[in-house]
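Bumping with the actual sequence this time:
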Amino acid sequence: MFKRCATLVFALILAAGLARAFGEHPSELDSDRKPKLKTGGTCVIRNVTIHSAVAPAFAGDVYVKEGKIAAVGKVEAPAGTLEIDGGGMHLAPGVVDCHSHIAIEGDVNEGTVSISAEVRIADVVDAEDIAIWRALGGGVTTARLLHGSANAIGGQDEVIKLKWGRKADELRFNAGPRGVKFALGENPKRSNGGGRGNRFPSSRMGVEAVFERAFTRAREYMAGWKLYAERKQRGEDLSAPRRDVRLEALAGILKGEILVHSHCYRADEIVMLLRESQRFGFKIATLQHVLEGYKVAQEMAEAGVGGSTFSDWWAYKIEAYDAIPQNAALMDEAGVLSSVNSDSAEMMRHLCEEAAKSVRYAGMDRVRALALATLNPAKQLGLGARIGSIEVGKDADLVLRNGDPLSTLARVQWTMVDGEIEFERRDAFGLDTTPPAVQALTESAPVPDVALTGDVLAITNAVLHPITAPEIAKGTLLVLNGRILALGAELPIPAGARTIDAAGRHVYPGLVALDTNVGLLEIGSVPATDDQSEYGGSQPDVRTTASVNADSAHIGVTRTNGITRVQIAPQGGGPLLGQSALMRLSGSTWEEMLTLDRDMLHLEFPVLPNESKEPKDPEEIEVLRRSFEEAREYGRLRDLARASRRSRPTRAARRRSRCTPRMRPRSCAGCASPRTRSSRSCSTARPRAGRWPRKSRARKCPWRSDRCSPCPPRARIPTTPPSPTRPFSRVRECRSPSRRPTTRTRATCASTPRRPAPSDCRTRRRCVRSPTIPRACSASRRTSAASRPARSPT
């Protein structure tokens, strides 16, 4: 595993070094984004595998004339028509994302009110958003720009075709009906992301009341205008009712001129909205996200409501915890017009891969799965007659890939919108012509022989992929006590072994996922389940090991995808985040799961976004630089201290050379002059009984500081532990250049913190503590400690 990690690091270093290998790092300007291939709206695309989204894939040609698909299959084009050789690649319809927030100037929410049906995304389309260019690079040709979900009744949407370097009016695609965004659940009632404030609603029952009040008032508004029109027709002279743009939009919803697309999650709120639409007579085109749609798919199908969902997003908040990856397939099976959406500028570039997950998890037909990202969302927008499939008469919104559109390995070569190339891939790094060499993987050490004892598991007739060796067709894999015993073709199977026939299947090593939060976060919006980050800046010493929840539902989900070991790492804070651990996804406790503790120290290196207006180094870079400088200095001092300890004399030698305040010869080894007197001097004599010398605060000779260098520090003399009920005595030394140093005593007691009375200590010498007598004088006291009654410890 560690060799593979090292290989990954090597690959990253290699990628970073490509700029040096190929010269200056490539740049991308608007001039570079202009496709070199020009069609003028008319061309013929030959030698491609056509994925029409309505039939199985087949080989053929596509004739495009004036931005429309004119012929599909074996076609004859007029002489002089531009011919594009597909080179055996795959041609598919352009991706349609019916839930996007790209290309919107400013915020996507008008969150100050509960109803904002009068606002329009059409007024704030940003044609210069770089997300348009990036989406074209992922094969997206059409996107519906939605208002946010902060309001129960939000603003009106706008559908655009993606074209780079055009004006906003050139992007608009108004061939379908208008739409408006509704929202249910946690977002309109503001359950997450701060306080709820004073805005109504703050509950699901309040959200329902918003619809009741809004459409009741809209009916009254419509009735008022209807009455005005009737009286005006009769010739009456009267003033028109006050025009209200918000009620005008709500009236458009009731008339069916504006279709509803509602953000939702839970089954209960889905049924509530269906009943509200039936009561007031408005049309719901789609339920967006609809992660519990599989629970009420029958009700949705009966109401003729479509469902546009995520493929496998879940657990990022409470209402998303029951999501399943089979949702789109189950709704489709129940007769619901289903699609997958992104709600993300990045995920929209991978919507074909998201649709492919329905094949992986639910065994969905590949043609129907491709329609989840192309034809079905086009129908949900009322644009199914124009886009979404490769059929004669439809707009020539086409994408050429080097592989099956449902494959994660497929790469977009060019994207065509209305018959014109809008995106063309260029090999900026030269990786197509000169791919970098990949280091071969080898086993770090031979696996030790294992005795044939215990139960043997045999996996037979499988295609084995050892990774470090060529694949083995019809191979056999023997497993004993959790270890691979042997693998190869035609291996003898031990008698009594359990056998699994894996004919037609492939066996790979378990995957190892790095930098995950598995077991540290259960539900994203619930802080009580979040143990993946720390506050207070850098925390390099914290570890994730003992915080892993072995009962987390994410462990089983992760195992389902072939991952057997994960590196569980801190995910926030920093820039020094903490230390990770390598865990196997099996065990009842974190100790049973642990493979390697504190395997890596993680840091989050700050980056400057490409969209930043002021290019400057983030402050975190200086924090990292200072942290590393401090660590380097700490290491230097630590190494010096270790070297000093190695050169110090033995304990016995240090004891012989210990300085004590009781012995005062004429000279001190620590003083500069042998004639200087010192209150601390080297001596081999032990202190007298009862004398507990302590470390002096003085560091210089107290006699003549101008003629004496500092004395060496005195080593601490081990002392008897204090009484459980009373602390040690505090001893102070009197230092005077005119007379011999003496000791004064200040005894402290837990019950009576005062200076000892003369009756307690007959001499001015040091008082010491006895296990039985709270205060006892030294051996030179006039009265015996035993002759006096012992004082109670309390």
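The tokens above came from a reply further down the thread. The longest strand covers residues 456-464.
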